[in-house]
Design goal:
The complex is a heterotrimer.
Chain A lengths: L1 H34 L5 H5 L4 H5 L10 H32 L2 H16 L2 H18 L8 H25 L3 H9 L4 H30 L2 H6 L18 H11 L3 H38 L1
Helix pairs in contact in A: 1-12, 4-7, 4-9, 5-7, 6-7, 7-9, 8-9, 9-12, 11-12
Chain B lengths: L5 E12 L2 E12 L3 E5 L6 H8 L9 E11 L3 E4 L8 H7 E4 L10 H12 L3 H14 L3 H4 L12 H13 L5 E5 L7 H14 L4 E6 L2 H7 L2 E6 L2 E4 L1
Parallel strand pairs in B: 3-8, 3-9, 6-7, 7-8
Antiparallel strand pairs in B: 1-2, 1-4, 4-5, 9-10
Helix pairs in contact in B: 3-4, 3-6, 4-6
Chain C lengths: L1 H40 L4 H6 L2 E2 L4 E2 L2 H32 L2 H14 L4 H20 L7 H25 L3 H9 L4 H12 L1 H17 L2 H6 L17 H6 L9 H29 L3
Antiparallel strand pairs in C: 1-2
The chains are: A mainly alpha, B alpha/beta, C mainly alpha.
Amino acid sequence: MKLLSHRVLLAFFWLTGFLTLASVGSLLIFLFVKGVPSLSLQLIFGGADPFRALLLRERVFDGLFPAIVGTTAVVVLSVSWAIPVGIAAGIYLAEFSGQNLKKIFNFSFDILAATPSIVIGLFGLTVAIFLHQHFSDRIYPCLLTSSVALAVLVLPYIVRTTQLSIDAVPHSMRAAGLSLGASKLQNLYHVLLPSSLSGILSGVILALGRAAEDTAVIMLTGVVATAGIPGSLLAKYEALPFYIYYISSQYTDQKELMTGFGAALILLTICASLFVAAHLLKNLLVHRLRKK
Amino acid sequence: MAEDNIKMAIKDLDVYYYERLVLKKVNMVFRNRELTAIVGPSGCGKSTLLMALTRLLDTVPHARVEGSVELRSNDQGWLNVFRLGETDLPSLRRRVGLIFQHPNVLNTSIFKNVAFPLRLLGLSRQEIDSNVRAALIDVFLWDEVRDRLDSPASELSGGQQQRLCLARTLVLQPEILLLDEPTSFLDEDLAGKIENLLIRLKEERTVVVVSHYNDQVLRLSDRVYRLAGNQQESN
Amino acid sequence: MIAKHNKERAAKGALSLALLIAGSISAFIFFFLLYFSLPILSSGLIGEFLTRGWDPDRGVLGILPMIVGTVYIAGLAVIWVTPIGIGLAAFIQLFAPKPLGRILRWTVEFMTGIPTVVYGFAALFFLVPAMRRIFNYGTGLSVLTASVMLALLVLPTVTLIAQDGLATVPSNQVLAAFSLGASRMETFLHVVLPGAWRGLISAVVLGVGRAVGDTLIALMLAGNAVALPDSLLDSARTLTAHIALVSAADYESLSFKAIFVCGLVLFIFAGSNIVFLRLVEKLKK
């Protein structure tokens, strides 16, 4: 009896492995088979001339170019808000704060990390409404509000990886700098940060991927289906993940649907590359620390 | 030297960790009703050797063995330990009991630690009770723990834990007993008692003791192997 | 010397300011949601609001269908993913041949990098038609479809945390069990599993949080009907999807203000998950 139940359980374990590989495999194959044929310059630039479009001399109407530019803009902006604040907060938690302070703030960051992205989007929306009502009626949900809301979304990742990377520096290394008369700040700058840089960087890259894939935050804070290239921080914009969502519910013909598959494949490739890059960096850090 | 007296034979055993050779060309025989000692400086691979003999090295990533280890069965002749399949390993490990240098009590009560291997075998509650009691008496631990069999084993002292681990292996009545520094956590008095226990145990089985204290083991043993670095000599 | 000292203080001040800003955001979000929910919370109708259906045209504003939809879809997803995620973690940690275990671990980590919207998009044209054909009922957009895809989305969270939990059981415990003749399965059941329950609870709780908090899968695959689903093949709407579907045309309308209560419910749920995990960590062995 015991042996039988153990065998059934073991078979189930093998099944979970098989199921995982099969579902991820079929998902990727399905996307590739459907998406690859639609990949072309026309998918991105539509009827426009690619060079003129890249130089922003010609507007792209039926291609993914504005969505790609929009995603790039909102991701870069959001990470530029989140990096200085997040890394600084992570450094303070790792190096300067006492145990109690650490507990309170880590609790707050854990809650922020667990907050559903749609709630963060809602928060971004209310901020936009608030600014609209109290400061300037020119302010609507826009590129700026989206990027700030996305920054809030990725902030806890950056804080945590910074904190963990600095904590992971071996004690001997930390003590070496201090014993040579370095101040805490000098030690941080010359010893701790250089040796935890690749860890922090991998956290930043993961944050980039997280910001690039998120749809729920931006759909409440300023993304639209057609806007062209955003002209300012206060403009509406397009983005790849929202485009994919939009096409999935609003496509009218097969051609539009194929653009959706193309967009899905492009977004998947972007996020997968960011993911692989982050992991290579992380492994680099692990190997370097092991050698020492 | 009668061949039929041999219980386990190690032939040209190499152990690699990554690409590094940590044990080189080990040749040993362990005989029935003998106490064999393996001595050598710490770090020479004694513990690794014992792990290899019970295939526990399988669980160590990047460890690899070459050569052969043969175990004699009463009815089946010789059994190559390295050729056993996964499903045969539990019975191998019941026949060849290994007691680790650092006591590794399970994270349960004192009683359950000793009862664990018997429960796996499906023994009745009564049989388990009496066997556990007998084993704890054998290792001189019964009087110290009889009132608190249900308290966590991790609360015992190092020496008590070491004896508990010995008792836990003895309940299985293994044909070969491999002990890694069995008295390292014990005071002189208890160490002497355990040594006497080992002498008694070897009357009906094969006992192998690994140690880096030369004289203590030499006093007890019928045969001594020395391991030094990745070489081995015997006398 | 004094200049250097001042520089240190200025730098430390800047760092602590950043921490203060970043650390107060979650409290800020909470008060924002609370403030915008006040019109409904203070109207004394909160009980009705949580227990009635949604029909703004007739002036009925209740979020019960969305709460039920969330419980069905996320709950079902957790029922799928708990055994599979923990089983997969055990398989990778203890049972899989080493190369296969490495491939699986890598695959699961890779899954965290796949965009949610891509999961939803692929499922819409792959799983939904299949479900429609298999059950020969409705559009294929249903509680069941969404829960299956949601389970796949949450799988890496559960598996990775569960495996970390299993790995915290000291290797000497595992060796002890092996050396006493325990098979791999016996070692897993009697030694590893009892030692890892805290990690497994974390895995499931964080999985629940991830399932409840996700928007896109339910939005794209569950059909978003504002009615209590009668069966798993019926359409349903989650709290998150309800927020996403709000038309922000009229910021002053009561139906717009209602979504803040949805947000507040989600936020409080996420927060209580974290509190629960802290309590579990504190529990003595």
